[in-house]
Specification:
The protein is of the alpha+beta class. The protein contains seven helices and four strands. It has one domain: NADH Oxidase.
């Protein structure tokens, strides 16, 4: 698989099989992903892996923890303008259509959103933290590291879902993994093999045409 094929094949998977992923494979992928660009070679990512027996322990820990937390950060601006709001709305409606959940079925929609906190049944995952002293340039480094990991995973036959939703459970996550106080959670990453029978995994999000966001000067 070349890079173009990996980019085309990568999807945010929201239903995984229980097929195990080895710690060795995850270690190799993470080590390769660390070759991602990093301004000043700061390498601001700090990663905590959940896999094997730690996964059910984490799920139980989360179930026993008060879910009412202050989010680590606002995932979207409070007043998201067009065209960004329109794109976000459409991909959500496309997803719920595949799930056969109508707009007025709020309980079912919330139940699906809650599956974020089960990693969509993925057998492996990691949490990506960053030092609280870091600024926007280092946050962009995290994005490059995470994308590099996802493309490498795709090359290895693994599927992924990057999950900023975990910002809403950041304190519980930090407590479980033993993250230092100077670290803040950026996102989670579900890892495994997609369920080929789950309709939601056929979702392909739209992309704006080039002329909508590129100007050759």
């Amino acid at each position: 698989m070349n890079v173009s094929e990996a980019v085309e094949a990568r999807r945010s998977i929201r239903s995984f099989l229980d097929t195990p992923v080895s710690d060795e494979q995850l270690s190799q992928l993470l080590e390769k992903a660390a070759r991602a660009p990093s301004g000043g070679n700061v390498q601001p990512w700090r990663v905590f892996v959940i896999n094997g027996p730690s996964m059910p322990k984490f799920h139980q820990f989360l179930a026993d923890t008060d879910p009412r937390e202050k989010p680590a950060y606002e995932i979207y601006p409070k007043e998201l303008p067009s065209p960004y709001r329109d794109s976000r709305f459409k991909v959500g409606e496309d997803m719920y259509k595949l799930l056969n959940i109508p707009r007025d079925d709020k309980p079912s929609r919330f139940a699906h959103l809650a599956r974020n906190f089960k990693f969509f049944d993925a057998p492996a995952a990691f949490f990506c933290f960053i030092d609280k002293t870091m600024g926007p340039p280092q946050w962009s480094d995290l994005g490059m590291f995470l994308q590099t990991f996802m493309l490498l995973a795709q090359e290895e036959g693994l599927d992924t879902c990057a999950q900023e939703a975990w910002a809403n459970r950041s304190q519980a996550v930090a407590n479980f993994v033993g993250a230092e106080d100077n670290l803040m959670l950026f996102c989670g990453m579900a890892i495994g093999h997609k369920n080929p029978e789950a309709d939601v995994n056929s979702l392909v999000s739209d992309r704006a045409p080039l002329e909508a966001w590129v100007k050759f000067v």
